[in-house]
Write a structure and sequence with these properties.
700 residues; alpha+beta; 7-stranded antiparallel beta sheet; 11 helices; globular
Length: 700
Amino acid sequence: MIFHTPLRKFRGFHAFLAVLCLLSVVPLVQGSGFGGEVVPDASLYEPDTVIVRFADGAGDGPALCSASANAHAALGADVAEDLSDLVPGMQVVELPDGVSVDEAVAYYTGLSSVEYAEPNYYVHALKEPDDPYFEKLWGMKNTGQVLQDGQSFDGMLAYYNNQAGTPGADMSVPAAWNITTGSSDVTIAVVDSGVMYTHADLAANIWTNAGEIPGNGIDDDGNGYVDDIRGWDFVDSDNDPMDFNGHGTHCAGTIAGVGNDTAGVVGVMWEAKVMPVRVLDTQGYGTVYHSIAAIKYATAMGADVISCSFGGAEGSEAYRDAIRASSALVVCAAGNDGTDNDAFPMYPANYNSPNVLSVAALDNRDDPAIFSNYGKISVHVAAPGVGILSTVPVWSAAYQDDITESSAAAWNVLSYLESDNWSGGYMGGTDRYALGVSGVNVSLTYSDTPFTDLEDTALEFVTAYALREGTDKLQVLVSTTDFRNYPSYDDMIHNESCYIADVVTGSSHGKIVSRVVGLDRYGTMLVGDPLYIGYLYYSKNPGSFAWLDSFTITRYTDPEEGYAFYSGTSMATPMVSGTAGLIKSVNRSLTAEETRQILIDSVDRIPSLDGKISSGGRVNASRAVLMARATLPSITTPDLNGNGVEADIGDVAYVYSCARDAASEPDLRADYAEPYGVVDLADATYISDLYVGVVVPPGR
């Protein structure tokens, strides 16, 4: 993976990449200039690569090589990655200096040998703040638990505070556990921000690559990845897919938190193999190419299900083709904008592929979550997605300031353009520090304390703002020089020791939001020099304002094990991915398309979803597993008081009875094979018009 980190300002920078926990996919914002200078626009895609697929008419082998070589040579471009083994003719192309993405796409699109060319779009996680006091896994078994609001920085979880649930508004997971609790033969790839594979509630269920010898520095299995024992990190291009965000670990715990271990949470699957594939950085962002590479990797390494709790509004034919080429079921979050995906697509959820399943989110009353996207055509099923408790890594704060009246005095203010209307300062009673509320001003508020040793750290600040796009903004600056030592504003913004780390513009729409800015790259680029951190507020609009409510620097090393409540379609997606894993646990022969259809056909239809999603229902794990089991051949025995049915040690045999002519669901129960390899049927009761069958899954 090629990840684009911020460059020095006025040489191009990547706009803010805040992790999205719950409510919204925040669009990347555009910067504006000061005093005639132009701050580069935040990009929606990698600025130096494009994805090209050469048409079938270009031929293959030598013919394709010749066609692509001629095309690239004329532009002065190079092939960064050839993906022809996944999708014939597909290549990731690195552009030469001076050639923009728009120019390159136009150039390649105009060639008769090219089927399509497109930007290498960024994708990002769909995540929002957690509720740390939620105590029940209501999505699996809803007894009427009350949702509680914890730290709802964007205000959306407060909507659900103290909302009592509707008993039975869940996925009927315990009933499915009567049939199967999962299987170590089923692999679920979590394509996300990585997974804390050392978490005690996950470690036993982490996938390992049997084809690699750990630590020998050799690609033993010849898959192109050295020592990929636990998966792969496409962000840092290494074999350590550790999670430095929390999003992926939360998803993994919902899918397959270790069950029946007297600690923590339980996943939809008690037993499975979770394959960590990291494509999102510490702030929850990656690129389409990273996602394509992850799909290719997970498929090649045998994933049955690929769980994708992220998305973006820009479609990619290359990404669609890569997913279509996968043999796995790809379960995707519908998005958290509260909009109609039929009109405003979210990708990869909106890709029209027989192995893609798009998931909306429900609250604990079976109502669509207020943030959840929907789509009568493009969104397929719904699942619980509000206040979901799961595993997370926990890091301690290296520095924290809740910005009270006394702490605000430690922040200096430099006004580069004096204004009688400037009113920056502490806003009493709310623990909020105002950076500006009116007037025309450029003012820098900064800490007078330099920060050191910022490797593997991130700054998180909580803010609300209303800034006119195109003129007004709030920038986060880092500098090795005390800001007061810059003679002027121009000296500061053109100085090699000062960087723009984040840009905020537009409006938070009355919500309080949390933003995360990675700092480790600056600590590395500036060779460990102490850094000053400041907030530059620029406004030409009397109605603009911004304020801060907290300031935290967190070091992302040696995380502790923890649990947290997240909400979003990101949380509903692993609910469905885990259910797909249960389906594969009872019938390994099902294809991705067949598994998808079972999930759709087995939903509980809910009035609130009528006309909102294509199935009109919530996933029912029990019914889905029953349908999957029903596709297996059964062995019948009329002798209920005999010696039992032979089975391999460790197999699960399903004992069921059903009327010969009834279309209703069978009455099921499950027993584990006894140590001598026989399922005891002595307790079964014979009813004259019923028959009993036993199914022993093959290949266990």
